[in-house]
Design goal:
Structural class: alpha/beta
Shape: globular
Strand content: 15-25%
Number of domains: 1
CATH class: Alpha Beta
Radius of gyration: 14 Å
CATH topology: Rossmann fold
CATH architecture: 3-Layer(aba) Sandwich
Helix content: 40-55%
Strand order of the largest sheet: 2-1-3-4-5
Order of helices and strands: EHEHEHEHEH
CATH superfamily: Response regulator
Number of strands: 5
Number of helices: 5
Length: 144
């Protein structure tokens, strides 16, 4: 995000929402960011779970995060640990998994632990934006 927009508190006036993309592969983050920005989302990026925790706790990000997409295999703090942190500290923010190593047991376990979607890389733009929109819709239902 290159500009600071004070109207972010009014989410629907500024776009579709803010998504944190956590992945240790810069090219994956870039492609996902571009797909989501094209669909009208603000995107924050982090290269691993540790960086994601730092990003989410910086400035206004804590208040204005609408969804998280997180890889599972990353250095420092991996996806399982990052997902647990998000679930414990931001239970209202839907989290999806974006992984290059699909694992049925991991998918089932993740879904049981509150993950709203399990996407396998490479993911196409339509599938990605549909998953994020669905996650945000679920968040809207939870807030009612």
């Amino acid at each position: 995000m290159t500009e600071d927009r004070s109207d972010l508190f009014f989410g629907s006036l500024t776009g579709n929402g803010r998504v944190l993309v956590v992945d240790d592969e810069p090219d994956v983050r870039r492609v996902v960011r571009l797909m989501l920005e094209k669909a009208g989302y603000d995107v924050l990026e982090a290269e691993d779970g540790q960086a994601a925790i730092e990003v989410i706790n910086t400035g206004e990000n804590r208040l204005m995060l609408d969804a998280v997409l997180c890889d599972m295999r990353m250095p420092k703090i991996n996806g399982v640990e990052a997902l647990a942190y998000f679930r414990d500290n931001f239970p209202h923010v839907p989290v999806g998994v974006l992984t290059g190593f699909p694992d049925t047991e991991m998918a089932v376990s993740s879904m049981r632990n509150g993950v709203v979607d399990y996407l396998v890389k490479p993911v196409d733009s339509e599938r990605l934006t549909t998953a994020v929109a669905s996650a945000m819709a679920q968040r809207g239902i939870a807030w009612r």
